[in-house]
Amino acid sequence: MNLTLKIWRQKGANDKGKIVDYPITEVSPDMSFLEMLDVLNQELIEKGEEPVAFDHDCREGICGSCSMFVNGQAHGPDSMVTVCQLHMRSFKDGDTIFIEPWRATAFPVIKDLIVDRSAFDRIQQAGGFISVNTSGNTQDANAIPIDKHDADTAFDAATCIGCGACVASCKNSSAMLFVSAKVSQFALLPQGKVEATDRVLNMVKQMDDEGFGNCTNTGACEVECPKGISLENIARMNREYLSASLKG
Amino acid sequence: MSGILNSSIGRKFAMALSALFLMVFLLQHFSINILSVFSPDIFNDVSHFMGTFWVIQYLLQPVLILGVVFHFVMGFVLEIKNNKARQISYAKNNGGANSSWMSRNMIWSGLAILGFMGLHFYDFWFPEISIKFIDGDMSGLIDPNNAESGYRYLEHLQHKFVDGWRVVLYVISFVFLALHLLHGFNSAFQSVGANNKYTKGLIGFGKVYAIGIPLGFIFIALFHFFNH
Ligand code: HEM
Ligand code: SF4
Ligand code: FES
User: Fold this and answer.
1) Fewer CB atoms < 10 Å away: N or C end of chain A?
2) Residue A219 and residue B87: Cβ atoms within 8 Å?
3) All domains of chain B, ordered by start, with CATH?
4) Is A20 on the interface with B (CB under 8 A)?
5) Which residues of chain A make contact with B109, given a CB cutoff of 8 A?
6) What is the pLDDT of residues A170-206, one digit of tens each?
7) Virtual CA dihedral for B203, B105, B80, A119, nearest 10 degrees?
8) Which residue range is the domain that position A122 belongs to?
9) Is the minimum distance from the CB of A221 to ligand 3 under 6 angstroms?
């Protein structure tokens, strides 16, 4: 396959940045998208040019670091995949492919396609945890019976990998799907109920302070989420938040 | 509870409450207007009641005005905040792949409704207020000095829909209202945290409401245009 890549290049946080065209030839349809970028980078290095900086780690869809907006969609045209799980067979010979970083004021670009997602870490630190006594008399979590449905729903929420595709896809750069997954995974379990009020208030406050937008319920996040996190989590967070603000 | 409007979720909750209220109002408004097609007398009687009963005039009407103003002002506030959350846009963004046109353009359908409301107030609300509170004529009669002349409401309405251009503007506005509601109806329930086993049914009902009510208003406008 021969392709034209239109890649966002930006030297650093303060550089203006621009889209640069890169023709690439002999791409195998069996390559993953990241392998294709590796080939491009090898060519750039051989030519003495600066390679394209992009985040990646596990290359198997579990770390959430391979953030890229490919042809107008987070993680490209396929559903329920990250960019490392996207294959070149999803494109046609002769295609032009736009590759851009996540766009959100709360996710500033560090270099090329790499953005700073530490806003997510700060939201987690604001309440995405439970407090347990670890002095040696910790109770076995299985000692508390949990409704199967609640356990499954909490687990589904916990599969969020913090990739930020929800923010990138949302027209408002809203982080509601991510935060609601992190709130839900605890809110549904007895261990999480203890700190539920503070958790949701603090996490939402941090989310707002980071400069993410408001949710318009367009549902774009749910469609683009590689882990299929459901909008039901956002409704649950709304309920949690409203009852928490009545209490606290 | 303090400062709930300072949080993103609180703002959306308030937005949804005002929207739910407006949707109940819209249904009520439609129910009365459709009477003008089926029974001019009942339409006149109900209009007179709505226009003169103090609970409606001095309690519900101010609440309605507050609700509308809150809704569109908050709509602008959210739009400005949301634009700030993404200052650099994508060179290529395939929004249609993951969301409906209606959901991405609530501000534009909303602005069209706002424009329509300007015309609608000029057509009906300002003349009403002027007759009732400036001329001081609370009789609701075509000729206030002649009890036999009958109520003026239907006549006023029919008079407005003689003008073809006005009918065209009304029809276009109702199309935008339908687009606004096609996303808005279910969005409002999601905003207040209602996403449960009834949601599927509610989505269906929302579609019927969002298309049915504006279509009904269009029918009324066209009916009076062709039957005057
Ligand atoms: C007066 C002009 C209007 C403007 C400028 C306007 C604007 C907006 C905007 C911008 C939103 C989206 C807010 C968001 O980001 O979530 C919205 C939501 C909504 N609007 Fe309006 N609107 C107007 C009139 C109306 C009317 C007359 C109705 C109903 C009869 C209505 C029903 C709704 C509903 C149901 C929602 C969804 C609420 C939610 O998502 O929680 N709007 N409006
Ligand atoms: S909710 Fe989905 S899209 Fe958002 S961060 Fe989690 S895994 Fe990524
Ligand atoms: S590199 Fe880990 S999810 Fe893609």
Assistant:
1) C
2) no
3) 4-82+100-226 (1.20.1300)
4) no
5) none
6) 999 999 999 999 999 999 999 999 999 999 999 999 9
7) 60
8) 118-247
9) no
